UniProtKB/TrEMBL annotation:
This is 4-amino-4-deoxy-L-arabinose-phosphoundecaprenol flippase subunit ArnF. GO terms for molecular function: transmembrane transporter activity. It is found in: Cell membrane. The chain crosses the membrane at residues 51-71, 78-98, 104-121. The keyword Lyase does not apply. Keywords: Cell inner membrane, Cell membrane, Lipid A biosynthesis, Lipid biosynthesis, Lipid metabolism, Lipopolysaccharide biosynthesis, Membrane, Signal, Transmembrane, Transmembrane helix.
Length: 123
């Protein structure tokens, strides 16, 4: 994989991870909710007007564009597993930004993911 291809793939992964974090921030701002017939429109409107959610959806759009460019350069059997790097980024970002727990079991899983991505990238 050449440097430009790697940049496209990593940019797609980063944008996707950023989208998840922004969506979580937007949902946190709204708080816990249940969709019922009575509140589907008010909750839907609250969600649709949260700037972090709008930003997250925008990141998704850009991530798809960048991902398509990356897929035009890299085999899908190499590119698709790289998406798992988003789990690693999001785990640490969620710990830092939202106070989510990084247990030993999660850290071991992250290590396994990183080893797998390294093996794939070198193939």
């Amino acid at each position: 994989m050449n440097p430009i291809s790697l940049i496209c793939i990593l940019a797609g992964v980063s944008l996707n991870a950023c989208a998840q974090l922004l969506l979580k921030a937007g949902v946190n701002a709204v708080g816990h909710f249940e969709f019922t017939r009575a509140n589907i429109l008010p909750i839907g409107w609250k969600l649709a007007t949260q700037l972090p959610i709008i930003g997250g959806l925008t990141c998704y759009v850009f991530s798809v564009v960048v991902w398509i460019v990356g897929l035009s350069r890299v085999d899908v059997s190499i590119a698709y597993p790289m998406l798992s790097l988003g789990y690693v980024v999001n785990a640490f970002a969620a710990w830092y930004l939202f106070g989510e727990v990084l247990s030993m079991q999660r850290l071991i899983g992250i290590g396994i993911i990183l080893i797998g991505v390294l093996v794939l990238a070198r193939s």
